[in-house]
Amino acid sequence: MSQYKNHLTPVKTRTKPLYLLPLHFYGYQLLALAVLGVIFFWFSRNEVLDYSLSHYWFDPATHHFPWKENIWLDRINHRLLKYLVIAAGAYFLVKGAWQKNPRMVVIAVLMGLGAAVVGILKATSHHSCPWDLLAFGGHAVEYPLLSNVPALSGPGRCFPGGHASSGFMAMAFFFWFYPEKPRLAWFALFCGTLLGLAMGYGQVMRGAHFFSHNLWAGWWVWLVQVAGYFGLSQGFAWFRRGK
């Protein structure tokens, strides 16, 4: 019997069937997420790394982030790259639905789910962006993660990093290549992680986010994608068995 239980459709099909992953795969992912969560929580509470990186791009003489309106960071990183990733997800959704390819549809759904969860968390957050904070020429007060919200917390809606999540969406391509090409799958996960970090750091340079905001964005996206794949693959298997 195959380790990955590819019994939903024939293994040799060229249409990338949906597959089930063993439970220990999810156990390893949850363990890794738990360890990273502890590390990221320490970064968020300590704040030294966040402030060190943001102060590097801040001009205390003008109380301004000089790269805030930079054309490359604004139009290329903040807009074009995001639209390209979204377009890739839309392509997979439309083509997968047209060809009745469940794996393509699931990849697109996972991309959307990860970014959507980060967007909801960001929209309800009281943490303000660096360019809104007193320490960087603004009027809002920053506070560590899970601390009491101060009265002058500012406009908020800045945690986790929404733009970084657009890059981290691409981590879903791991499930496109796995299990037929595991090395390529892990490489896709690495590239998606790198893309999210790069897009997020561009926002750090502009003063739009702290670095830890982007780390948490990647954490949430991967958690949602792993949980989402488990639920969708199990649901599809149940549906096929019932037919």
Describe this structure in words.
This protein has about 240 residues and is mainly α. It has one domain (about 25-235). About 65% of the residues lie in helices and about 0% in strands. The protein has 8 helices and no strands. Helix 3 crosses helix 4 (about 100-125) and helix 5 (about 160-170) packs across helix 8 (about 210-240). The radius of gyration is 20 Å and the shape is elongated. InterPro entries: PAP2/HPO, PAP2/HPO_sf. This is Membrane-associated PAP2 superfamily phosphatase. Keywords: Membrane, Transmembrane, Transmembrane helix.
Number of strands: 0
Residue windows where pLDDT falls under 50 for at least 5 positions: 1-13
Q: Any idea what the shape is? A: elongated
The major sheet is characterized as:
none
Domain Phosphatidic acid phosphatase type 2/haloperoxidase: 106-224
Pfam family, one: PAP2
Protein name: Membrane-associated PAP2 superfamily phosphatase
Transmembrane segments: 21-43, 80-98, 105-124, 159-177, 184-204, 216-239
Write the layout of secondary structure elements.
Blueprint: H1 23-46, H2 48-56, H3 71-99, H4 102-123, H5 162-168, H6 174-177, H7 182-206, H8 211-242
Helix pairs in contact: 1-8, 3-4, 3-7, 4-5, 4-8, 5-7, 5-8, 7-8
Transmembrane segments: 21-43, 80-98, 105-124, 159-177, 184-204, 216-239
Protein name: Membrane-associated PAP2 superfamily phosphatase
Keywords: Membrane, Transmembrane, Transmembrane helix
